[in-house]
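dumping this here so i dont lose it
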């Protein structure tokens, strides 16, 4: 508005600098679009749940908009079988008085990200557009619902894009401009009395990963073919009227939190709208994320504990496999519908040899896939992973067996060396060796008792064995091997025993300590064994 006294603010009558009259018209218009909604305006915030409506358009339009948002949230929660729906980021809707004020802050899409919220803008003299309500429904699905078939989720968004709210009176099912078969099916289930009361069971089954045929049977006690036949008949009828839904009992004139908004906060909101999600205050959660340092990312995670992205970024900084897995697991848990996150977690768990956990992550990734094509690709990757896991386990068992065999051989070699040393010492005590003589064998050492005969039976006990040796004459002798790893084996053979009756019996020479064990009915403990 231009008067002889200069530019006049339409609310306060404040005269602005006369020099503006000399500016080009486009500069004057830009000035109005930039400062008029803020300068001197009475901006009020109305809050409920995750919604903040910031308006200078008067009390009733703001409360009506907030009521519309809360009713959508409530009815959608009911249909999804949820007690409450929340958002990772609160939504701040800036409601301008008219199209002229709004035009300077119009967004290219329904929402843009702000530093600590999701931002939106609209005008008080027009109803919220269907695309905006459809996008809001999508946000609630992404932040709250289990993955359902694409067609079902799209139909839900279309169904709630035409929600009609008049205070506590709510209806859903008014037809949008374009009507897919999936929308017709969902509209029938949501509006027709035979199905409406059980729609939440159907949608809840789908969210749990149930096949649609099972979800239909559990919900409506029909086969899938029968339900589809009824949908076909309903579609041919061509009558798609909205039906009442159970709305939220709330008084918009009294039950919403109301507060005046400081000019600095309003200016920050407008700056966020102007930035279109490309710039954020440096100390805001998204501003901290943009810094990318570990301290900044940790602060960002604390600022919004429901936000997965800081943990994903922190995982990228980790070099220790277990720490990387922990961050990715936190991120995937916070964003359970993100199939790519679960796949990344599965790969990191595989790298950390956490194969059982990786298998579970692959299964969740497959269930969270956005469509059948992606699901099939993940399924194939999962099968490849299972083959890799099986190969790893076989290799690991082989490695452990080889390590045990090497350790056993080391013990045997050490025992043989001790025996050899004792043989040398015995011969030296007897006056040493004459030319052409060989060392006297430890076998003939008179300190032990000797038994020669046929090994007829081996009784395997916990970490011990009992041998039955039948000499060439006389009764059989029972002897204990307390610790096979400490047994001295003479000659080049190995002391390998098979439990049970020996078929056929093996020739064996034994040296034992002669300490009988009445409980075990043994004559002594074996010290040296030889298979001649």
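and the seq i came up w/
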């Amino acid at each position: 508005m231009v008067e002889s006294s200069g530019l006049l603010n339409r609310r306060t009558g404040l005269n602005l600098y006369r020099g503006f009259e000399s500016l080009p018209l486009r500069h004057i218009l830009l000035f109005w679009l930039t400062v008029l909604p803020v300068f001197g305006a009475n901006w009020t915030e109305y809050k409920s749940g995750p919604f903040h409506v910031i308006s200078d358009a008067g009390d009733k339009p703001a409360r009506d908009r907030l009521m519309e948002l809360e009713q959508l949230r409530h009815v959608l929660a009911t249909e999804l079988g949820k007690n409450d729906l929340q958002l990772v980021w609160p939504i701040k809707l800036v409601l301008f008085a008219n199209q002229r004020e709004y035009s300077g802050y119009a967004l290219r899409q329904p929402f843009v990200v702000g530093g600590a919220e999701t931002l939106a803008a609209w005008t008080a003299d027009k109803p919220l557009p269907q695309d905006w309500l459809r996008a809001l429904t999508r946000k609630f699905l992404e932040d709250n619902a289990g993955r359902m078939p694409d067609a079902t989720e799209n139909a839900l968004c279309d169904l709630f894009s035409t929600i009609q709210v008049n205070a506590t009176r709510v209806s859903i099912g008014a037809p949008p401009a374009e009507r897919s078969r999936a929308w017709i099916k969902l509209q029938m289930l949501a509006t027709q009395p035979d199905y409406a009361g059980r729609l939440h069971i159907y949608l809840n089954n789908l969210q749990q990963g149930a096949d649609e045929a099972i979800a239909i049977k559990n919900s409506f006690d029909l086969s899938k073919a029968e339900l589809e036949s009824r949908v076909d008949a309903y579609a041919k009828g061509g009558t798609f009227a909205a039906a009442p839904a159970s709305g939220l009992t709330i008084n918009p004139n009294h039950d919403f939190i109301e507060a005046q908004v400081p000019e600095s906060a309003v200016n920050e909101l407008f700056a966020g709208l102007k930035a279109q999600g490309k710039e954020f205050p440096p100390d805001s959660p998204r501003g901290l994320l943009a810094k990318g340092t570990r301290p900044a990312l940790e602060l960002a995670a604390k600022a919004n504990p429901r936000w997965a992205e800081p943990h994903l970024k922190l995982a990228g900084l980790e070099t220790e496999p277990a720490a990387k897995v922990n961050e990715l697991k936190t991120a995937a848990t916070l964003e359970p519908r993100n199939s790519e996150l679960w796949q990344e977690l599965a790969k990191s768990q595989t790298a950390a040899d956490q194969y059982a956990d990786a298998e579970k992550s692959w299964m969740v990734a497959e269930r969270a896939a956005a469509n059948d094509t992606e699901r099939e690709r993940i399924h194939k990757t999962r099968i490849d992973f299972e083959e890799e896991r099986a190969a790893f386990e076989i290799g690991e068992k082989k490695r452990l067996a080889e390590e045990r065999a090497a350790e056993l051989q080391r013990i045997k070699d050490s025992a043989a060396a001790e025996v050899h040393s004792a043989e040398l010492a015995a011969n030296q005590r007897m006056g040493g060796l004459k030319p052409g003589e060989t060392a006297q064998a430890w076998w003939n050492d008179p300190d032990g008792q000797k038994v020669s005969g046929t090994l007829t039976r081996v009784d395997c006990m916990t970490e011990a064995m009992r041998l039955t040796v039948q000499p060439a004459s006389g009764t059989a002798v029972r002897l204990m091997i307390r610790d096979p790893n400490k047994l001295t084996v003479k000659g080049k053979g190995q002391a390998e025993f098979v439990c049970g009756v020996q078929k056929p019996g093996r020739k064996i020479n034994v040296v034992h300590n002669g300490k009988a064990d009445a409980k075990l009915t043994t004559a002594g403990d074996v010290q040296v064994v030889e298979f001649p």
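The radius of gyration is 41 Å.
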